[in-house]
Design a protein that fits this description.
This protein is of the alpha/beta class. The chain is built from 14 helices and 15 strands.
């Protein structure tokens, strides 16, 4: 990349590149520190923390960036080069920087425990050393500090939640089932103290700044989980927004009650209402598909001030006073006859571009029959008559969207969907006040998020306009 001329803007641009390296470390489970080495107007070395994954105590971000720069320039002396790192360097890295004859070192956040540029000691200020490197701290210090503090907060939360007792009536998918998921680098978050959860552990993603202009609340359906949004989340984050994507109880990394009868429309809805309240979500664009819509479309009427937009994909409101679509009835019959159907194979049939590891990611939450109660329970849970659980609240939601909704709406339809395709979505569109004609995803099926990058880009432009 071409860097700006020398000055604060250039320093910040370089530190943002170092922050990008820090996020790579975070995605790998390492302490999120990143570094870049700059020669003139060119980045010649990049590095992020990797001592754990490489079994190497010297694999700090700075050392790795110095090594790459030395190879690029063909010299271990890096005269005239600058190093930008997100955290004040330790004694080992400071020594290496001076040995490399760097002209300047710039860091973001201070390190009160091991910092060797002034916090614990200042190696760079030792007058008896034969090389003196200019040092500057505090560039994008808040951003660098948030990356680190968020990581350690998450670690503490994970430690607490890993010790969270598992209810006798539930199962928890072994964590190793989720190792190495393609394109799913985000740290897990867990809740277990919502009143409705009563000790069940619920997983969710929470990425991006808390005071972002938009919070995208992404709700999945059956039989998927938050992995379904992996193609859309990066687009939302790149726009500077926040993304929250929970796994419904029974799915993904959330706990899985053993009995089919545990699952009800009213209970899952109550969990989501409490979840939104606990996280105090605001400026929300509600992103829904399949059961994410059946449940999610009933949420905004309870707190309209929290919601500013709706992104609806291949879903519906089940009000009980309209017949269920033939496509859905066929799906429900298939689930009843084949309760052990392969989730990965289902996704592969509708999305032939998926790789075997991606299909395996959809199978990951469900290692055996005992973990599949939600998959069996959800198809018959769709309200079919006016007295069905969820039907009355869905009718109230229909009235809200038709008469009281004040936000903006965007709809994307996977045209190939035989269950909740274009006819169902057009009927829903007519029930949503001010909803424009939908974006048609010609190659998309029921799980249109698998073609979701284009949808996300269109939605970002629409809601940020």
């Amino acid at each position: 990349m071409k860097l700006p001329p020398a000055g604060p803007a250039r320093d910040e641009a370089c530190m943002r590149e170092a922050l990008a390296q820090g996020r790579l470390a975070q995605a790998a489970g390492e302490v999120p520190v990143g570094a870049v080495v700059v020669h003139g107007d060119t980045i010649v070395g990049r590095g992020h923390n990797a001592p754990v994954t490489q079994h190497d105590p010297t694999a700090h971000a700075e050392i790795r960036a110095l090594r790459e720069a030395a190879r690029a320039l063909g010299n271990y002396r890096l005269d005239g080069c600058e190093l930008f790192v997100t955290l004040e360097p330790c004694a080992m890295c400071s020594g290496a920087m001076m040995h490399a004859r760097l002209a300047r070192v710039v860091y973001g956040a201070t390190d009160p425990k091991t910092g060797a540029a002034g916090s614990v000691l200042d190696l760079f200020a030792q007058p008896r050393l034969n090389h003196h490197t200019q040092v500057q701290g505090g560039v994008l210090a808040d951003d660098c500090g948030r990356l680190l503090s968020g990581f350690f907060l998450q670690r503490r939360q994970e430690s607490r939640m890993n010790n969270q007792p598992l209810r006798d009536d539930a199962l928890r998918t072994p964590e190793e089932r989720f190792a190495g998921l393609p394109d799913y680098p985000w740290a897990p978050n867990y809740l277990s103290d919502l009143p409705a959860l009563a000790g069940l552990r619920m997983h969710y993603l929470d990425e991006g700044p808390r005071e972002a202009p938009i919070t995208w609340l992404c709700l999945h359906g059956n039989p998927s989980w938050s992995y379904l949004y992996r193609r859309m989340i990066p687009v939302f984050l790149a726009a500077g927004d926040r993304v929250v994507a929970p796994d419904l109880v029974g799915f993904g990394k959330s706990d899985k009650p053993k009995k089919d009868g545990f699952h009800t429309f009213a209970w899952h809805r109550q969990v989501l209402l409490e979840f939104v309240e606990r996280l105090d979500l605001h400026d929300v664009v509600l992103v829904v598909q399949d059961w994410g819509g059946l449940l999610g479309l009933t949420l905004p009427m309870e707190a309209p001030g929290r919601y500013r937009g709706l992104l609806a994909m291949n879903t519906t409101l089940a009000t009980g006073d309209e017949p269920l679509s033939p496509g859905f009835l066929a799906w429900r019959e298939m689930c009843a006859k084949n309760p052990e159907f392969g989730v990965g194979r289902l996704f592969a049939r509708g999305n032939p571009h998926l790789t075997p590891p991606e299909c395996a990611a959809y199978d990951a939450p469900f290692p055996d029959r005992g973990h599949r109660a939600a998959l069996r329970a959800f198809p018959p849970m769709v309200p079919e008559s006016t007295g069905s659980d969820g039907a009355e609240v869905s009718r109230r939601a229909r009235d809200f969207w038709r008469d009281a909704w004040q936000g903006r709406s965007f709809m994307a339809v996977g045209v190939q969907d035989p269950v909740l395709g274009a006819p169902v979505m057009q009927a829903l569109r007519r029930q949503i006040r001010g909803c424009p004609e939908p974006m048609l995803v010609e190659q998309g099926g029921h799980f249109v998020q698998e073609h979701g990058e284009a949808v996300a880009r269109q939605a970002v432009g629409y809601f940020h306009a």
